[in-house]
Amino acid sequence: MKNMRSLVMLIIALMAGLAAVVLAAKWIQQQNASSGNKIAVATLDIQLGSRLTPQMVQMVEWPAGSVPAGAFNDDKALAERVVKTTVSRGEPILESKLAPVGSRGGLSAVVEEGKRAITVRVNDVVGVAGFALPGNYVDIMVNTQEEGAKNNDKDRTISKIVLEHILVLAVAQEASRDETKPKVVNAVTLEVTPEQAEKIDLARAVGTLSLVLRNQTDLDPAMTKGITKDMLLGRAPEPPPVIQPAPEAKPAPKKRAPVRRAPVATKTDCVVIIRGGAKITECF
User: Fold this and answer.
1) Which of 118, 126, 234, 283 has a Cα at 20 to 30 A from 110?
2) 70 in Cβ contact with 85 (< 8 Å)
3) Cα distance between residue 120 and residue 109, in whole Å
4) Are 120 and 188 in contact (CB under 8 A)?
């Protein structure tokens, strides 16, 4: 009898423990469901300009209190979207990293609204030894001749920074911004405004271009006046030759019409004759 009572108590204890485990599991599951959300993350490294496919995206649980702004909780909303910046594997895909809806893939999706992409030819020197990489900022300097200089007159050359803080979109055909190793290429694509594109096109027509690498956070303008050969060597420029103006031709004097004068009476000899108290004057 005593053993039977102990057995009943053991069975009751086991059932109570099992019920506690079940309730605790349900409570934990409810807490996880209420504190977590599923958001879209990248399943692999995605390069900028790439169009998203279902194989590139997966939904994962994410704590509700730390969901980043612009995250997607539906992977179908990402169909055919284009990324405008590199997305690493496991990184949430945000609206700020995507091009506008309807954008096509490629470099054109990376160009900001109102901007243009222009490519300039470079070499190992002009391209800053390959250190001008996508995502960097450069200044553009032109070397040309001063106004009025003769062809190949090296004494009248000038170097001047014409554009500042220009974003490098791509080097050659590479647009990835994760590369940090220098790469010598023969062309660099820059993001500019339409007015800046006109300046670059004219600058490379009248002279040679050089890229000047600058700090990404440096926004202060250079405000330089350019430098000439005389300024470089520290000598005073020769004064320009003084051109004497040609003497003005004086108009020929006008001929005056001869003035006709009245005839002047010539002087004559006169004699006074007195006859009988009368005076008679005779001239001859």
Assistant:
1) 126
2) no
3) 20
4) yes
**Whole-angstrom Cα distance, residue 54 to residue 60?**
14
Which helix (H) or strand (E) segment is 204 a member of?
Answer: helix 194-206
Distance set, CA 158 to CA 143, 145, 148, 222, 228 (Å)? 6, 6, 12, 16, 5
- What distance in Å separates the CA atoms of residue 59 and residue 74, rounded to the nearest whole number? 8
| Amino acid code (one letter) for 214 | R
23 membership: H or E segment, kind and range: helix 2-35
Domains of the chain, first to last: 37-108 (3.90.1210.10), 114-233 (no CATH)
Helices and strands counted in the chain (H then E): 3, 10
- Taking only the tens of pLDDT, the chain with its 284 residues reads 556 777 777 778 788 878 888 888 877 776 655 555 789 999 998 888 888 888 999 998 888 778 888 899 888 888 888 888 888 898 999 998 888 887 777 778 888 888 999 999 887 777 777 788 888 899 999 988 887 666 666 677 889 999 999 999 888 877 777 677 777 888 899 999 999 999 999 998 988 888 889 888 888 888 888 888 888 888 766 666 666 676 666 666 666 666 666 555 555 567 666 766 667 777 66
> Which amino acid is present at 103?
S
